[in-house]
Amino acid sequence: MRRPSSHLKTALMASVGTAAVLASTIVGTSLMASAGGQPTKKPQTGAQNLGNPDYGVCRGTDPDCYHDWGNFDPAEGYKVLLFTRTAGPRHANLGPALGPGLNPPLTDANIVQKGIAALGEKNGFKVDHTEDITQFSTPAKLFQYNAVIFFSTSRDTLDDAAQTSLRQYIRGGGGFVGIHNAFGTEYNWPYYEGLLGNANFYDHGPAQPGTVRTLSRRDASTKGLPATWTTTDEWYNLVPFPTNVRFLATVEESSLRPSTGGGHPGHGDFHPVAWCQYYDGGRSWVTTLGHDAKMFTDNATFQGAEELQKLIAGGIRSAAGMDPFCR
């Protein structure tokens, strides 16, 4: 939730300018904020090489990459913004495109929007929904939310003002959650690719059942999940491959039908489907899962519905600061 304007102004100080960021990257450091609000140099946690780019920011699993500017007061409760705008292919579970403004009316076909709202009711956070980029027009609008969720957005969904606001929000300690086709979004914006953990969508095979392996049950998003569980999804292949993140779950490719296409050969023994990282002062939790509408509508017969909902709800809670992050 948004704190008084003085805190917002402090958060905006996190933008140190392109020249300063580039200079800090050259010497292998990234500008961070000290407790007193003044920029100080901290060592980069990411390897300084082309195989593990840091995107000019402090990123990785080191909590020192988080900027606590005091912009969010737990006493005010927790609130997230669900963004589902598409500028290209649109997943059926999003339903028809939404009208302008905040919280436009939903139809029964807007399954994702209603599903995330229901998760919020069960897990202690309020949900606003929008597909209107004017809700990203200033950082002040985003600082009303503890986390922003991109759920199956597609292509170039943000204009220049929205990109700037999102970056300032992240730098001010905001939370980001990317679900499913969030990986098919903003291909030409390197900062966003870094926010996804140095990863991007390449291709996928037909939707099919697969076995998910939970890698760590210490994290808020994986606590309580079984060691393995089955669900149906599109099982995204990624290029680049995520780096300098904490992997939370994978799919066992041996449980999937072999690809018959001429595209990506698959990830073999290690095919991640969920991970987290600190990024440029904020928190980022992402998953490639979330294709099937039945994850929200058919708990009784759709395999993995309960596990998927727990995974996503925990990811949202941790990115929003409700639970410990990236454990």
Short note summarizing the structure:
It contains eight helices and 14 strands. It has helices at residues 5-12, 18-26, 111-123, 139-142, 160-171, 190-195, 294-297, 305-319; strands at residues 29-33, 39-43, 59-60, 79-83, 126-130, 147-151, 175-179, 201-203, 208-214, 228-233, 237-238, 246-252, 272-279, 282-287.
Number of discrete helical segments? 8
Question: What is the strand content?
Answer: 15-25%
In terms of quaternary structure, the protein is single chain
Structural class: alpha/beta
CATH top level class name of the largest domain: Alpha Beta
- Main sheet makeup: 10 strands, mixed
- Give the overall shape: globular
Q: How many structural domains does the protein architecture include? A: 2
Mean pLDDT figure: 86
Low confidence ranges: 1-50
Helix content: 10-25%
For CATH, the homologous superfamily of the largest domain is named as Class I glutamine amidotransferase (GATase) domain
Q: Gyration radius, to the nearest Å?
A: 19 Å
Looking at the structure, the CATH topology of the largest domain is Rossmann fold
Number of strands: 14
CATH architecture of the largest domain: 3-Layer(aba) Sandwich
The succession of helices and strands, N to C, reads HHEEEEHEHEHEHEEEEEEEHH
Q: How many angstroms does the end-to-end distance come to?
A: 24 Å
What does this protein structure show overall?
- A hairpin with a 5-residue loop joins strand 1 and strand 2 (39-43).
- With 327 residues, the protein is α/β, with parallel strands linked by helices.
- Helices cover 22% and strands 22% of the residues.
- The protein is globular and about 45 Å long.
- The longest helix has 15 residues, at 305-319.
- The chain has two domains: 5-65, no CATH class; 75-319, Class I glutamine amidotransferase (GATase) domain (Rossmann fold).
- It has eight helices and 14 strands.
- The model is unreliable at 1-50 (pLDDT under 50).
- The strands form three sheets. Strands 3, 4, 5, 6, 7, 9, 10, 12, 13 and 14 form a ten-stranded mixed beta sheet that branches. It has a two-stranded antiparallel sheet with strand order 1-2. A two-stranded antiparallel ribbon has the order 8-11.
- Residues 114-300 form the ThuA-like domain.
- It comes from Actinocorallia herbida.
- It holds the Pfam family ThuA.
- InterPro entries: Class_I_gatase-like (IPR029062), ThuA-like (IPR029010).
- This is ThuA-like domain-containing protein.
